[in-house]
Batch of 2 targets.
Target 1
Amino acid sequence: MIEFPGTETEVRQLDRFLTATERLPSTPELDDMRARAQSHAERLSNAVSIGFAGEFGAGKSSLANMLAGADILPTGPQHLKLPLVIVTYADTPETTVGWWDREPKVYSGIALEKAAADNPDFISVGLNTPALREISLFDLPGSGALDDTYKQTLDLLKFVDCAIWCTNGTNAWRETERHLWAQVPQNLRDNSLLAVTHTDLPPVRDALDRVLTRLEKEKSGMFRAIVPIGTPVAVRAMAQEPEPDFALWETCGGQNLAEKVLEIASHRRRTDLEAARQDLAADFLPFLETLTGAGEAAASDTRTVQPSLESALPPLDNPILEDWLAAIASIYEDLRDSSDIEPAAFLQSCQEIVEDFAERLENGSEIDPGADWIPGEFEKATDLLLLLQFESGEGPLKDAISILAQLSDNLAWAGSTVASAPPKTGT
């Protein structure tokens, strides 16, 4: 069985980089790194999108219903005209009506007819289906052979990570289909499937071997794999009681299709992971190392932490900043006195202190009104410090020190007022 790769570690590293650099002065190099890190984080945090496309009557909506495990998309001849429909994970069923240029509208439950009446640009349906935690399904409107719907299909395919082109087995892979698919970017074609549908019909089943032999010769550079599927039979196999008919599920092509879909989704996820890891290793983590230098120097002599931080600031009249400096100085003192302190215990101490100050900052009376973003920074730091406790090695300790230093800078910049300096005495 193909194992879908996890992304939790990389997403945490990307989030730490973005948090640590959020308030740094803008430079072209830093802006480029932050843009790449944000893009990686978004891709790895979202489900892999699988687009279903094909000419009218090719059975793409039936196939999407089968993989979603729910009969929600209309199939066959019907009068309900739908735009792009996205099937995603949600704790409770809901239907979102969306437009490219305005705010969406949400209906509870599955309400495709009501959503279609709003004339949206797209509709999103949320289902509590475990498989949808990893992949989301994009059911594209059917395309015609000689009309402008081909252009719409090409435009919408830009939003998906992988694609399944459904071709009707009664007249598989026509010239009009080849013409459209040749215009799809190569990186998408390399991670897409050609599903030959209606293989449960006798005329298609009888000629299937010959059709597949022809398609295998033509797939080079066009598809990752070709998968024949008798969708109605597959649906019937999985609906059997008291348990699915797994033998029928396999012979009708359902098992092969499910494995191939997971394969292309996993391949895309691994590709995204590799790109993120390369940037983390080459750029993001080395940059964070330069930010942790000051924190490491402070940890080497904890008794000088508070005086050194205070000497860098003008005379301050802000009790919360002074209390913060004292608190982190006590953390470093504990670290110095206990050379064998457990990293998890140190990180937990950091988290508890940050959490205490986050609660204290909530009333807003101790910081400048224009610095209302400060409490949010402390809340994010609390979450990051909690996540760091599940990692090993010296990296989390360095990251924690960097977080504390960044919070000190934030308070010094936005939460302090300059006290009246004592008069200078003559020399």
Target 2
Amino acid sequence: MRRILIVEDEEIIRSALRKLLEHADYDVSDAGSVDEAERKFELGHFDLIISDLRLPGAPGTELINRAPTTPVLIMTSYASLRSAVDSMKLGAVEYIAKPFDHDEMLAAVENILQLRASIQPGIPDTSGDVGESPQAGDPASLMYGQCDAMQQVFTLIRKVAPTETTVLIQGESGTGKELAAQALHQLSPRASHPLISVNCAAIPESLIESELFGHEKGAFTGAVSARTGLIEAADGGSLFLDEIGELPAEAQARLLRVLQEGEIRKVGSTQSRKVSVRMIAATHRNLKAMTRTGEFREDLYYRLNVMQIRIPPLRDRHGDILGLACKFLIRQGERMGKPGLKFSPEAMRVMEQHRWPGNVRELENAIERSTILCDTNVISPALLDLESDGGEFTVPQALIEGDEHPASVREPDAANDLSLEDYFQHFVLENQDRMSETELAQKLGISRKSLWERRQRLGIPRKKTTGN
């Protein structure tokens, strides 16, 4: 078993993270501070250290110096994302924002350990699913696909990854574009340097240039100190720009200069500096059509579209649906203490017939939901709740029962015959004042990113909070 050390001063987070990793078959130790960790353990004996950024005494980044041979993953709040960039520059192998999704954390841990095993061959790599284990860093170790379409994607990734070529990944939401970007980075000569991922649609338009390129002190109101941009933080490594089609025009022009000249200029600065960054972009939109309407720069499109990788939607991967479903069921069953779960023949037939508009993410969410609700070891079609494939959506009974839910959600008229979009809008507006984004996503059976994407599509603004 590979050994992981958690350094976190909040007992609740430390305990929850420990249970999550132990359920995934890791040998886990923990401490409340850097000094306590160094006092209790030999830091070099761990395969990975996961540490909060802000700790009593020394910050979590101090572990990078005290355990130089052990990779360090830094956790930080969304409000401190800029500090995470600084952590990467200090040598952190990865960062993750709190509150984190369990799958996101497990994927990050597995990727780091696989990369470490590939760099240090003496360390056995026991990760992965039951059966044949692909080589660490190979796309097949991150993504599942037995169908011809996915095998072609894997072949293309293997060919393109070792080059410096800019790559444009296209595919619908939920198909696994970010996993493809991770595979491109891990198979490249830049694998020992950071992969910085940016969701261009999630950053307010007024801040996008500052986030990407950095800014000088006093460049605009609120710029009380100089900041390093995400592109500069990726220097020597790779930059993954998800939803590149959402970049505003001015940021597009500045990004074009990075691709053409290999240099950036901070907002408010007159000086440029050279950067060496491998650019990987992704979108679910038709960028070529956007160039004809003027929404996207044509010259930037051709700079990005040197090599294109198309991730097929799940409905076109008919032979992969049940394989993916079984992998997700094994993972969720182990995580929730329900080993030995299986699908009924009717459930398998329903999954094969469903069109999966939310792709792999929708499949994973459906199986997680059914694992939670099942009382036996057999997953039935009713638990999957996939019968409504024509725009109609049956509200899960778990969401409309119990006194904690508003009466307007529990009423039969509000719960029956709602379209998916109507129900989503109704539920979010009714509950966002008393639920966090994580709680809303969990109740709806979707990821935080999916929640954000649907908010944008339906024009439901996120409730402003007054906290930090």
